[in-house]
Amino acid sequence: MERDKYLSAIKPRMPEKRYIHTIGVMETAISLAVKYGEDSTAAETAAILHDIAKYADEDWMRQMVKENGLDARLAEWGSEILHGPVGAWIAETEFNITNEDILNSIRFHTTGRAGMSKLEKIIYIADMIEPNRKFDGVEHLRKSASEDLDIAMKACICHSIRFLVNTEQPIYPVSIECFNDVISKYA
Q1: pLDDT for 138-181, tens place per residue?
Q2: 152 closest CA partner among 170, 132, 137, 167
Q3: CATH architecture of the region 2-135
Q4: Distances from the Cα of 58 to the Cαs of 64, 65, 77, 90, 182, in angstroms?
Q5: For residues 96-126, b (16+ Cβ closer than 10 Å) or e, as one string?
Q6: Do 101 and 116 contact (CB within 8 A), yes or no?
Q7: Would you give the end-to-end CA distance of the chain in angstroms?
Q8: Which of 56, 65, 68, 102 is the most buried (most CB within 10 A)?
Q9: Is 156 helix (H, G, I), strand (E, B) or coil?
């Protein structure tokens, strides 16, 4: 079974707390996929692999960006941004994942992007609302996810942007594009 293979592959690459988070993302993503008519196996795969590069060496990730023609802007960012695109590259090269929707779900699970597919939204939202997350506003995000996927996506990207602004952190341009896209569609 692919699930067991992927779980065995990710476990040694992350601390136990992150592995528990990944299980929470997987369960949440499967539930959202069933609720919103998405392929639950694709959601499961993307969720399991979404943080595969989270604890990889930043210099190594920057090298992978350069060597593999990934978005050059990535080289200027830390692991919070790098691990999604590098994780998608690992999923493709190490696990032979060819489903572009799964790869994009991994690639953009932290930043979002304009024109997200249903699966991409599910992984983005599941990463933010899985049961082990504890932050102000998470219950509101969970409630919105139980009511409407697009409204939940809007609530989640707004929460992320607000957090980055309030903590005076730079915002990756793709996240701004995601915010603008979601706001214009679901105003």
Answers
A1: 999 999 999 999 999 999 999 999 999 999 999 999 999 999 99
A2: 137
A3: Orthogonal Bundle (1.10)
A4: 10, 10, 9, 14, 30
A5: ebebebbbbbbbbbbbbbeebebbbbbbbbb
A6: no
A7: 42
A8: 102
A9: helix
Q: Coil, strand, or helix at residue 36?
A: helix
> Which of 86, 119, 81, 90 lies closest to 102 in space, CA to CA?
119
* CB neighbour class for 137 (10 Å; exposed up to 12, middle 13-18, buried from 19): middle
Q: DSSP label at 106?
A: H
Collect contacts of 75-79 with beta carbons under 8 A, ≥24 apart: 77/172, 79/53, 79/54, 79/55
Q: 136 is written with which tokens?
A: 């102000």
**Dihedral (Cα; 60, 65, 66, 69), 10-degree rounding:** 150
